[in-house]
Amino acid sequence: MSGGLFNPGIGEAEKARQQLRERVRRRLHAPHRVAVLSVKGGIGKTTLTACIGFSMAETRGDQVSVIDANPDAGTLADRLTGDSSVNIRHLLRDLDKLDALTDVTSYMTLAGRLKVLASDQDPAVSEALTAQEYRRVAQLLSKYFNLVFTDCGTGISHDTMTPTLEMAHSVVVVGSPTVDGASRAGHTLDWLESHGYAEQARNSIVVLNCKDTSEDVDAARITEHFRPRVRAVVSLPHDPHLASGGRIDFRRLRLSTRDVLTEISAHIADGFPEPYSERK
């Protein structure tokens, strides 16, 4: 209206987004591994892993990767790139020959800036993935990627869970604002605490995936229930594009969904350690 003579500056909402993005871009001085898990499947864990990984990669601009460690023919690559023709089994076969980033990424697919390592699509073969094999893959990726996200697959009792949690610097626990979904998240935290991962449980981020909701459940009360147990609790709003279950096009996500994914990413970045030179 003023013909450009008056510039009111950015609004409060955009200022909040900028602040979140600055938190996401916090300096990282060593590889950081993030495990995304739930005690049971069907809660939206793979979708969340894909979305957080993509959000981190796009906002930070450095090397970010995701591993599908699902022993039951996981769908992470399907959701992100639609290509699982090369996968973790092929990388393991040639692992001793790989000594450069370009070598490693030839076994991965690309979603925006995010590098994706698919699981084997033959459940009989992928079930044979051992703890030691997972450890070798995670160690290799940590040589070339600043951030490595692991979609831990269905449940938490398969062989790769032990090295995943032992190597993880951050843990994201997925639940939902329903009786069953909250119970799953609670049981996941209980399992972590009773299996020697109490510190990871206390420092974890609980994400309540609102793909399923009920008017009979007090979502705010569920959030407050988890808040004293963990470092942060975030609710991911229902998004029709994610609910379709197909390949994710991040341009089609609602702005509110993208904002929450940035918030989750910021909480993860808050857990990055300070460099030794900045520690008191």
Q: If you had to describe this structure to a student in words, what would you say it looks like?
A:
The protein has 280 residues and is of the alpha/beta class. 42% of the residues lie in helices and 14% in strands. It is built from 13 helices and eight strands. It has helices at 12-24, 45-60, 76-80, 88-93, 101-105, 123-126, 131-144, 161-167, 179-194, 198-202, 219-226, 240-243, 255-270; strands spanning 32-37, 64-68, 109-111, 114-117, 147-151, 170-175, 205-209, 232-236. Strands 3-4-2-5-1-6-7-8 form an eight-stranded mixed beta sheet, sandwiched between helices. The longest helix has 16 residues, at 45-60. The radius of gyration is 19 Å and the shape is globular. It starts with 11 loop residues before the first helix and ends in a 10-residue tail after the last helix.
Give the helices and strands, then pairings.
Blueprint: H1 12-24, E1 32-37, H2 45-60, E2 64-68, H3 76-80, H4 88-93, H5 101-105, E3 109-111, E4 114-117, H6 123-126, H7 131-144, E5 147-151, H8 161-167, E6 170-175, H9 179-194, H10 198-202, E7 205-209, H11 219-226, E8 232-236, H12 240-243, H13 255-270
Parallel strand pairs: 1-5, 1-6, 2-4, 2-5, 6-7, 7-8
Antiparallel strand pairs: 3-4
Keywords:
8 strands; 13 helices; 14% strand; 280 residues; 8-stranded mixed beta sheet
